[in-house]
Amino acid sequence: MRWSGTAKALHWTTAALILGLLALGWVMTRADMNAALRFDLYQLHKSFGFVALGLVWLRLIHLTFRCAPEPPKSRLERRLVRAGRAGLWTLMILAPLSGWATASASPLEIPTLFFGLFKVPDVVRPGEAAFALASSAHFWLTALFAALICLHAAAALKHHFIDGDDVLTGMLPRRRSGPSGLKKVRQDNVLKRLDEVRSKRF
Amino acid sequence: MLTSSISIYRLAAAVAVLTAAGAASAAPRPFDVAHAQVAFDVNSIGFGKTHGEFRSVNGRLSLDFDRPQNSRVDFTVATGSIETGSRQLDDYIRKTFLDAGDFPEMRFRSTAVREIDGSHVDVTGDLTLHGVTRPLTVRVSVDATERGQPVRFTAVGVIRRSEFGIRAATPIVADEVAIRVATQAVPGR
């Protein structure tokens, strides 16, 4: 079973964004750097976080019209798939929302500028207690998210290398089977010429 | 951008020289201020140290090497000219900490100069920042090479921003802000 092109595009775009955001979040909070660079990285993290939130919202809409692969045969696998999917969807929504709450609650009161273009409204009033709660929620949710993404990727690799089925390849861009377009026309002409030469000789 | 305005001081010094003619051997001499760097460092919890500089500085110096206590200094810094390396951080500091719209300038005017040793003086003066004027003493190291050559000064001091009514983001961003002013004084023509 293959996913639609839109589903694949949304899957891989959000995947790239989420992995980038996890890496950026790790670097900006832990690495030693000057405050100016750190400030810019935080703003970048927040901006891309909103892009991710927007894309997840799009994916949710698309979910209702998608063509999903068949559910697995075994009951255990069906349960695992359902739990994994529910977990990923929940975290795709909660991770950016908790980040938004963290940015809003920060006592630093730094405006969140979407790529420097416009100010994103705050969803929580700034305060020490709200910030402590939101930031630890954001940390643990994203840590759980990272763990679940690892399991998700491990499961896909297990399908490909151990089960030998098309679960992983079904999410990969469709490979063109054989040459197409101009290349194909040229190849046909060459074959035709070859046939002519052959028929003349024999 | 660095501008130096000296005319008023030069005039004042000239008047002083004329009126005190013969009475004193050397009056404070006006100096052009060149290569002035006004920098600050402030610590924070979790975000590291923020270093910034102000690009627009107006300075007036009147120096008396024989009697340093007669020297005077008057610096005006445009608060909006802050540079940290991040434009968004600059904007944030301008709005949240400096209120640059309401307080476009900060100013330091010396009231007393005390010689510590041959190459150090303590300069006490009034610092006006964020609309609040408070006394501040900075330790200045003087690097005078030869007469007629630029004299290098490096002034260091610490202010408590809360004393100037700048309380945003405490205690995450430290109250104490280290100030460092480096400048060269070129003898006035």
TrEMBL record, chain A:
Organism superkingdom: Bacteria
Membrane-crossing segments per the record: 9-28, 48-65, 86-110, 130-151
Keywords annotated in UniProt: Cell membrane, Electron transport, Heme, Iron, Membrane, Metal-binding, Transmembrane, Transmembrane helix, Transport
Membrane topology field: Multi-pass membrane protein
Family from the record: Belongs to the cytochrome b561 family.
The keyword Lipoprotein appears for this protein: no
Cofactor or coenzyme needed: heme b
Subcellular location: Cell membrane
Cited PANTHER family: CYTOCHROME B561, CYTOCHROME B561 HOMOLOG 2
Protein known as: Cytochrome b
Main subcellular localisation: membrane
Gene3D superfamilies per the UniProt record, alphabetical: Transmembrane di-heme cytochromes, Chain C
Residue ranges of domain Cytochrome b561 bacterial/Ni-hydrogenase in the record: 2-173
UniProtKB/TrEMBL annotation, chain B:
Annotated SUPFAM superfamilies: YceI-like (SSF101874)
Residues of the signal peptide: 1-26
Highest taxon in the source lineage: Bacteria
Xref: InterPro entries: Lipid/polyisoprenoid-bd_YceI, TTHA0802/YceI-like_sf
The Lipid/polyisoprenoid-binding YceI-like domain, residue ranges: 28-186
Coiled-coil ranges per UniProt: none
Keywords, sorted A to Z: Signal
Name recorded for this polypeptide: YceI family protein
Organism the protein comes from: Chelatococcus sambhunathii
